[in-house]
Design brief:
heterodimer, A: mainly alpha, elongated, B: 539 residues, alpha+beta, 16 helices, 10% strand
Chain lengths: 98, 539
Amino acid sequence: MSTAELTSSNWFGKVSAAVVLGFTLTLALTCTFAVLFSRGDSYFTAQGQIAMWLVSPIWCLILSLCFLFRSGARAWGWLAVANVIAWSAYVAARFVMG
Amino acid sequence: MRTDIVRTYKDIHSWVGIIAGLALFIAFYAGAITMFEEPLQRWASPPTELSPPPSLERTPQLINQVLVTHPEARRSFKVHLITGPEQPARVSWETGTRRKPGETYFASLAPDGTLEVTNSKPSEVAQFVDVLHQQVGLPFDHEVAMPIMGVIALLYAIAIISGVICLLPSLTKDLFALRFGKNLKRMWLDLHNVLGLFSLPFHIVMALTAVVFAFHDQFYFAQGAVQKIGATQIEGRGAPPPAPNAPAPQLDVVSDVLPPAELARRVNEQMPGMTLIGMSYDYNAEEGHHGHITGRDPRYGMRGPTYGIGEIDTQTGRIIEADYLPGKQSGWFATISSFFALHFGNFGGAPVRWSYFLLGLAGAVLFYTGNLLWIESRRKKERKAGAVEQTSATRILGALTIGVPLGCIAGISVTVAAAKWLPVGLENLAAWHSRIYYAVFLLAVAWALVRGAAQSGTELLWAAALATALIPIASLVAAVSNGWNHGGNTRLVDIVALAGAIAFAWMARAAHHRALNGPRDSVWSARDLQLDLAQQPAE
């Protein structure tokens, strides 16, 4: 458990991380969804539309929960790690689905 | 839960709330009204100068005359199965393109069988309120207003989650408590909590859908860009639309379709339970004869605000595209429609519409009480620090918390009532409704800033009551002075407006009482601080 108390004063680093890296993380997750479930040749299929809709809840959740990071630097760090994992999953999904 | 988490989220909640609260009030108040967009549009639409719409059986005669004399209608025209003041003609067509719409023309047959055509539209005031709702009250172009609305929606989502986190620790203690007592802040907080928690699913739906409505183009673009990387060329999105100045198709080609009565019969056969609203007859060389249908079925959630959409073959009546037709959708498309339906409240008929209306108003109250709490907690801190006079931030925010909501309420009411008074045939009616709304709105905000929250609170509530009373008054004046009223469900507009006016008048009396008798250091107090201080011995 952490010893330092959480505060709202260092919000900028956390929010900027959630806006930028949170969005790219969301993009990776939703695009992976589209690759796995989409049937058809364009991204405007039903599955493609659902993938677009999924951006909203995922990104909103990241934006809301980013304040739980103890500092802006940790937010950027952890979200960067999450991005690497999610984008790897995306590349793997593209590879598997051909 | 750790207290530092709760404290952090309390800060987050109050700041995102205060930034987004006033815009959200407008979105929710106007949005509640759009639940009854159709009755409102009927209420506000003057009777048409056209002859009554011909029966469906006689409509081919009308269509033929339109297509002969107006070749621009041959590419696409609509047949309306449900007509009324808000949809005055059996047949209509539009010029221009989807991106750049032109005029809409309406046609009917005179008793002697000659063609009548007009471009005077039904009232656009309901549409104006809808746009106000979509753009959270911002008077900008759609392209500018929507991203701003999107940011507000993101803040709103953060406010919801942070609010829930704040409430969780004391949930069991506070939930059913409504302490209407001496401690007014406690009362507002209890009210805020109970409204927020019990309409939580509604608010989650609204925040998440609003984010998509604002940013869908950008989301699609980003995802499309990702999927395109290293992929073989994605196929184009069908044929480009024909140029607007391309020659019109031949009359005999376009006329080679089923007449409306037969087409409607065949569609109804395939869609039992759906009420067909309209059908379009479209023709172009690439796609041949086809058309779009709209219809409603309260057993299902629908893709459009009040209808589902499908595509038919106008030569056979066969449904060729049912992705957005109620009851005919695949699981994936039904899921997408459910997102829209949950935002529009278009499932389940009147009970759901009324629930959404009340939830929308409750949402508006939620944001208003949120602002009150922000002001009240700042006031307390100032007193602890020894300051007696309110800071300018509290004063200005107090004034805006009065001016913006009440300006919005009064502005909408006046511009709706004006629909019965604006001269028929006025050019650019929509712009007039916009001017009237913003004039009233800005006047109310300026009034609140000049007079302060306490004085203007009472005055603007009276103004809102009077403005809202103008709606039934407009109907009354029309009834006694040879004007027009449509009866039916448009009476609801008058009744709801009257109830609203009475509620605002009641609130005005309560605010007046509080300004005179409430705590003197409140921003809502109208008692003269200097005078009271002078009468008391210095402490």
